[in-house]
Amino acid sequence: MPTSRTRLTPNTRLAALLVAGLAASLVVIWAAMRPAIPGDPLRPVTDLSHVFWIQIVIGFGSLAVSGWVWALRPRDTATRLFVLSGIATMCFTYAPAPLRESMAPVPDTVFLALIGLNGVGASMFGIAMTALFICYPGRLPYRRVLAVGSASFFGLWTVIGIAGALQGRTEPIYNIHLLTTVEMLTICLAVAAQIAVTGRDPKARAVAIWFGLAVLFGAGGFITLTAIPGVLGIPAPMDSHYSFAFFLLIYIGVAAGLQRFRLFELGDWAYRILFYAAGAIVLVAIDAVLVSLIAIDPGPAFGVSLLATALIYLPLRDVIGRRILPRPGLKQDELFLAVVDTAFGASGRSRHHRWRSLLDRLFAPLEIAEADSGVDQPEIREDGVEMRLPSTPGHPALILRHPWRGRALFSPAHLATARQLIELMAYAEESRRSYDRGVAEERSRIARDMHDNIGAQLLGALHSSDHDRKDLMIRETLTDLRDIINNAATPGLDLDETLADLRVETAERLGAVGIELIWENDIGETPDLSTSATHALRSIIREAVSNTIRHSGASRLSVQLGRETGRAHLVIADNGHGFDRKSVRAGNGLSNIESRSETLGGRMTCDSSPDGTRIEIRFPLKQPGVPA
Q: What pTM was computed for the model?
């Protein structure tokens, strides 16, 4: 059976804490609304000052923020200390509120109790926060000794001070502002120590830097505007009740760090805010020097301060930012060239090696590993410790861990770079595949041309008994070979002239083996064909003639070329013994003829029987890019 502890949910824990805080708030509000004369009605809520409501909001807000973090992780030492500090903040903000607002006389015992509660709350805030920053996020040396020692020191200071106040003594040892100042300085030292010891842990360092920023603005603001003037006995620039708002900055910053909310952005935000704040301080400092020491009028002094800040501080800030905040190590043009170089590697192994080298140049991770599961888009995980990249053609999905040799975390800027990198890689890979397809098609074209044209012409030259004719055919073969290699695309070749030359060539080839040629050309006036189309038509006829010579056993071959409403009709038939297309596997010859027909934009049909073989091809006479 589950125990009551296991049944407590985060919502239950948070609700219980908020109900207790709300009850304390109602008690404080009731005490502030008590009338001066017993029996009179309570003061209207609207009569309470805005300072009172500021204290209520700060106290309850601190409890709510710290309680939310604790409710999610109730067993962590850090969250327990955090919620303890929230309770302490509520105590020292609520305790003086009725004393300031109540019109009814406050009994001495109640007065002393509230003063004591104020002091205990302030002391407990410092003790809890100091212990929190000693034990989290990194492990400080002698952290237990430091935590117990600071708690004992501030606790003893508070007890002695309260005891003296109860006995009517007013020793300066219990100056509440001095106690708060020392506590805040101790907290700052603990945070600084955390930043120092977390240098090799990017996650912990990001939290420590965020803590430092929250303490710098929260504690620093309270010390500067309230605590130090109180210690020195000079008028404070800000009412202490207003300065309590600085504690909310501390709680919001610490809550974000404890929850590691978007931890990969905390470091960037911390540095940005710090740089902006430093810029404002530099501007104010220069302006104060010009006005106070050099006695320049405020208007010109402010203008000179702006100019000096822009010329000196902003460039310096950029230099420091580039060193502190790692950024992708390549410019846009360098990135594009690197991606192209990667995609066009000589082999798959080379491309994969270049891909990993590119990722190392960009992010310098300590580890690059293959992802077990598919990743659709680049994404940051483990609070910025790792970034996952989807697979790209030829490369598996990858996990990059501990960027910049473990000195930083992945940030949204790096995620944007990774997305751009994946898009560029996909584009480059597609370009490479298109290039490879073009190379393969070109190789196939050259192979077909070599088989259809060069082979047929050399075979004809081999069987020719006329030496002059043989020399001419070899020279024409060399010319065709150059055209095949160069793939000349000059339009305007004369079809009639091409067909006439082809007829003479075919007659000689067939005559050399004793085959009769019947050639009929009824195509009439035709537009000129492109070089590629002329090569295709010539290759079809040559390949069909070669097949007849080699395989058919025919005594007669007819070539008929006619015209049908803008389309050419080519019929090549022999009286050989034919072949069974189902049992005879087509070689390069028949498949090449079909491929050449498609090049012409036409379609081939082939019928074969014991009485012979008949090939028919219909193709458009007007070729793209060739004027009619």
A: 0.53
